[in-house]
Amino acid sequence: MKEDKENNRPKEKRVEIKCEDGEKTEKSKEKKEAMTKIVIRRLPPSLTKEELEEQLQPLPEVDYLEFFSNDTSLYPHLFARAYINFRNQEDIVLFRDRFDGYVFIDSRGQEYPAIVEFSPFQKTAKKRSKKKDAKCGTILKKQLLCWTS
55: exposed, middle or buried (C-beta count within 10 Å: 0-12, 13-18, 19+)? Predict the structure, then answer.
């Protein structure tokens, strides 16, 4: 009898929420922004940002381009990657048609077919200016005050 009580879950109650105004749900779907940030994966490990920009020319209007060189800790998968945020969504299709499967060749002659896809994280990193540390050099200032007095 005791085992039956432990194994039985209480019955779940279903609660239906009815929305009289169907426009509210449509508006929330419209608020989603269009995907404009893409990632180019499987770039050659020896590739630099300048070489990539040179090979991507002519590049449509972009407002964000970030290049990440290879990470040696991921040994068998030593690839570089780049994130690009386009201003116009139409440019993404043209870019994908041109560079998805495009073969990049490194300095040794090895071929690396690139993969172009939407970035899983669509936000772009903001350029932050480093604030000057207010306490920087305060020890030296105190020593100078002590020596002068």
Answer: middle
